[in-house]
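Section handout, structural biology tutorial.
Before the tutorial, make sure you can parse a SMILES string by hand: atoms, branches in parentheses, ring closures as digits. In the record below the ligand is flavin-adenine dinucleotide, and the chain has 400 residues. In the tutorial you will relate the predicted structure tokens back to the input. Do not try to memorize them.
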Amino acid sequence: MANRLRRRYDEDEATIAVVDKDDRHVYQPGLLFIPFGLADVGEIVKPRRRQLHSGIEFHEAEVDRVALVEDRVFLDDNTTLPYDVLVIATGVALQPEETEGLTGPGWREHVFTFYDVPGAEQLARALADFDGGRVVVNLIDMPIKCPVAPLEFAFLADSYFAERGIRDRVELSYVTPLDGAFTKPVASRHLAALLADKGIELVTEFAVGEVDGEHGRLVSWDEREVPFDLLVTVPLHGGTAYVGRSEGLGDALGFVPTDPSTLQSRVRPNVFALGDATNLPISKAGSVTHFEGDVLTENVVRFLAGRELSASYDGHANCFIETGFGKALLIDFNYETEPLPGRFPTAAGPLPLLRESRLNHLGKLMFQWLYWHALLPGRDIPGISSTMSEHGKERQPEPV
Ligand SMILES: Cc1cc2nc3c(=O)[nH]c(=O)nc-3n(C[C@H](O)[C@H](O)[C@H](O)COP(=O)(O)OP(=O)(O)OC[C@H]3O[C@@H](n4cnc5c(N)ncnc54)[C@H](O)[C@@H]3O)c2cc1C
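Predicted structure of the complex:
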């Protein structure tokens, strides 16, 4: 957003300031590969300052709170930043301590998450030492960022253990609070069939009440139990803490109420939000954040010029799903259209939707380059619009 906005204004027209609590920008999709030794931290973490074009101020400090009535942001280094427009992009906070027992005995020993850098690195060591037993992959509850990432982890674990020659000694289970493998019906059927093909047990409607790390048990509120030797879980997500300290800014979960089409917040006309920090009914995903950024740049410019906002964000989301053995699926959807089979980006396009292919896997790997060199500098993805295209989508879903 900052880089895009900088291009729209001369330096004497607008001051653009970015605040972040650290100088380590993480390419989060890469966290999936670290546990399997397929990426290392050096390639997925880079200094933030280097990503920002000249003429953008960078404050390395934590936001303490936003005072909406004063149009000011207070930082923990005692700086106060007044604003004409505030864009909120502070993502989510992982809340493992909110689940009983999760951070108790066994945490970071045989109970892990790969959703942060330390967790992904610790899990890499635990997987390398793992010689057989029950591996359970779990998400505690929605919403989580990249809702397909735990599924990808299960698929990659299947492939990883097979390559190590110990797959027959590992029982893999995918335990979810949802009533299927995924949130949307067509994709859910495809993904459940893939889990079955790969011999990964699917346990649905399992709302975790307690993690008993000492005895290796996941216990649900309705008193079912799933045993594990190694648990890979995705903790509860909420908004970051300053949202709760900023009167009137967030909802009960700490997310910012946001208009789904314009991305203007519902709390103040000069406050906008994008990415994981919003309360929008769409996946918390980098692709969503990128497409939203396209619409939001235009809307910040319109707002400052006193023009009507463009209500053009349609909820477009786009995700590669690693399925192991060098293959991946691709899904493309928006608020109205669930992920459907077909081809991408057009009916004659090279990438199959909702079907495994090697090209999709190569697309996922290539994406990292595109991220650092095109998306963060604020450029568009060639040939892919922020609005979802109907081309190539098979409206009549094929029977599975
Ligand atoms: C394992 C994993 C795999 C993923 N895979 C994919 C994928 O394949 N495809 C995809 O599209 N998406 C994927 N995602 C999701 C994607 O990374 C996020 O949706 C995306 O990063 C959201 O961008 P954001 O800017 O909203 O939040 P973030 O990128 O999380 O950025 C939030 C920023 O706010 C800062 N911040 C928070 N609070 C404060 C504060 N109080 N003061 C100052 N700074 C603060 C943080 O330091 C951080 O830099 C994945 C995520 C994970 C965890």
